[in-house]
Amino acid sequence: MLIGALTHGPQRIVCLTEETTEWLYLLGQERRIVGISGYTVRPRRAREEKPKVSAFLSAKIDKILALQPDCVFGFSDLQADIAAALIRHGVQVTVFNQRSVAEIFSMLFHVAAMVGEAEQGLQRIAAMQADLQAMQAVVSARVAAGARRPKVFFEEWDVPHISAIRWVSELVGIAGGDDCFAELSLESLGKNRIIAEGAEIVRRNPDIIFGSWCGKKFRPENVAARPGWGDVAAVKNQQLFEVKSPEILQPGPAALTDGVQKLHAHIMRWMDTDLKRRAPV
Q: Model-level pTM?
């Protein structure tokens, strides 16, 4: 029996979340994708080119099986039931559970290697890491010049208040801020990052508030109108900003590029303003 031309890795991939879809497009391997999450917005063209077969906590199993995938990429224990159903049908499933910046980079390498693009993957990863290191150098220079690092509250949901997951908290730090609720960031489940009392957020008095309400539009005016929040530094100085969910809550390329760059831009402007405010007359 003759063996045909060797192919590298899976050829028919279903991506149950956006980050693997975006990464495969960046690697030039979008031809391998046969199905995507309905929440996918990066890259924009993926929504036009690929069938949508899942939400986040649910999936159209029959539709996925009809696509005859040789691999399905999923994310986290929250998709365990989807993964189990597909495995029972004999589908190869790879579920990543990246929660930190380091784990995101590890996931990116594994996906690149699986599709025969390990070298390109490493080059792209190195470029992203160099950008993050350059960002940290800029922050260090500002601090050396006398700037303060702002206290940052990143609100992942508004009612109830949910603080930043680990990779977001780490990116806030890289961008130049200090997460007000860093101790909660190690909790992988949103329910364990709930801040029951808004008064505790007020007490910690963040200088900047970022909102990314999981697809719901962030409303700075609603934050400013919360009872007792009028004296919060971020509210008084109008430092209330949205970072869209696909740019920061996607544990993949977007958070490491566009997402952290937006955090950094706002934090640098705050640092510059703070330096001027405290400069001797």
A: 0.94
